[in-house]
Amino acid sequence: MSKEKGAWISLLFAGLLEIVWATTMKLSEGFTVLGPTLWTIVLLILSFGLLAKAFRTLPAGTGYAVFTGIGAVGTVIVGAFLFDEGLSRWKLILVTTLIIGIIGLKQVTGGEEA
Fold it and tell me: Its domain of life (predicted)?
């Protein structure tokens, strides 16, 4: 596996963990519930560790934008289904725009930028 491919995989898992720690943070009710609070801290550390690993190879701006984009899209989806936050037509359009941006950043970021 190439170094760049490994960095993208680390970044993907970092973003997925961001979705989970954002969810456990919501469940912690402002860090007042111990279990979800501890999970949030552990998952946040793991997520940022993977992000830091990806930053060794990928440009920081691209990496961070993709990381937060994955987290934002996933958290909106989790919020809609787990916390009944709803998905309006505009929310779906904007989330789709984020997904297109994430894919676009992946496509235009090549080894020459790293």
Answer: Bacteria
What is the rounded distance in angstroms from the CA atom of residue 17 to the CA atom of residue 8?
14
Cα 111 off chain centre by:
22
Q: Which residues of 89-98 are buried (b: 16+ CB within 10 A; e: fewer)?
A: eeeeeebeeb
- Angle at the Cα of 72 from the Cα atoms of 70 and 75, rounded to 5 degrees: 100
- To 5 degrees, how large is the angle CA 71–CA 72–CA 78? 85
| pTM (2 d.p.) | 0.90
Position of tokens 């993977």?
50
> In this structure, which amino acid lies at residue 22?
A
